[in-house]
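[job 0412] stage=fold_complex status=start
inputs:
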Amino acid sequence: MSDKDQRPPGHDGDDAPDTADDVILSEQTALPGLRTTAPATTLTAHDLATPYVLDALEFDEREAFEHHLATCEACQQQVRDLEEAALLLPDALVSPPADLPDAFPFLLRDVAHETLHPVSDTLGFLDDEDPEMPEADDAGFTPVDDDAESDQQPQIADAIYASDEPLPADDDELAADVDEGDAPDAEDHAAAEPVTPPVYPTRPARPPGRIRPGVRMPAAGNGGGPATAARSMQITPATVAALAVGLVALGLFLWALLLLGRVGDLEDEIGQQNEEITTLRQQANATAYTLAPTTNGPAGASGTFFFSLPDQMGALVARGLDAAPNEWAYQIFYIDDDQSAPIAGPTFQVDENGEALIPLSADVASFDAVAISLEPAAGSPAPTSQVILQGRLGGAAG
Amino acid sequence: MRASSGFQAPPFGETFREGKISAVERLTAAYGGRVYGVARTILQDDLAAQDAAADALRLILEQRDAAPDQLTGVGRWWIAVTRRAAIDRRRGRLSESDATRQLVPRHRAGQRELQAAMAGLDNEQRETLTLVVQDGATVAEAARRLNQPIPAVVVALRDALATLHGALSPSEASAPAESES
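[job 0412] stage=fold_complex status=done
writing structure:
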């Protein structure tokens, strides 16, 4: 049986040539292997009416069919016919689960009261008594104020759990029940009219579980529909702008943090140097000697030689020196007045502030003077250029 | 059987459209569990199912002026709106603006009539319908799960729905009178 043979009347292909109307369900959604075992059937747009009314088409398929539907009267009629049956199917196929969540009835109750802002229900409620829900008979309340309404609410929850019986049969049966007198009659109605102030039962505590905040659904015609989750994920230009501003602010904040970190590191370094100087100065026997620039040195240059006799340690602090040229360094030379040649000491570089802190070995204090000159970076055994900074130590260790 | 006193309760739809809590109580008592079952089967998530059912209840309450007269009609409306909401959420799509009113059933078939019509389906048709209607599967998804080619699924659905439509046609709702009231 070919697919065309199964088409509804009006879809015999005369008015809809396959070459023009073939709209195949997304091929990529079917297992490739299955296509080879499929009967020799070609689906056309007309065949999608049933999946359409059952909401069983992918988005693009649905769009394509709706495009076709706009101009195909036969499909329009078929959709009208079939959608009525389709609306009945969930009721026929789905059974209520046995494990209904405890909070669900209360959720429905809250939604009902949030949405309805209940109207006065005194007479209407009595008139509307459900013959299958006799427990509501003695409720005769006048729900004018909100508290009164809320007292009535647990009936929804109670009713759901009380309704283990099958669905209320057919409405025809319900109507028959009403006619048979299960509903309040006129005398009952008259007797109920002199309403006395009701005493409402205490509203039971909400059971633990899903408590839904009062999220209000948008009304139809305003993009309304039940897909709250999908709608809440819509991205608007304002959202994009807000996100962009947020990202820029976050970037600036992180950049500031990095700068603060760098500043902090430098401050820590300076503080460490100052502590070393202070420590040296605070040593009981620490002695400081000043180095001054020679005529060949920078005018603002200076140096201080510290020496602690008990600790047998010393250091030289140089300031105001220019950065050494490439492959050159400053070098310390120790001078002993009793010896003709100076003794080569360590080389060093100054930082961007023209400063340097050079730890010195313990025996340097036995010398009479110290001098600094600019030498090749590897250092020289003897000064090869003019001394730019020098000072007398006065035989500190001696 | 007691003789009728002459007093007749207003039809359910009337009190529901008036927004009476007692009508909502009847609705939730009769259909709350079933609506939740529809949503949970599609979404496979308890909290999301409760949200979908509650959102759908809010929608039909907000648009209760479109409610049919019968309790079963309103209940099926609630189920249909919930199913649409659950499928929307599952497929990550937005709803059509007039989806709620479009889903008001006009057919007045009772449960027995409906079950009798369902009995006319063969196993394959029932299984396919169950996947699509109860689980919210698309045709392609149903084809994969049934290990069937897509055209076979479409044909099964079409035949099943045509059978149901034919079986239920005598009580077509377009009959103007609503005898219940």
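[job 0412] summary: The two ends of chain B are 20 Å apart (CA to CA).
[job 0412] exit 0
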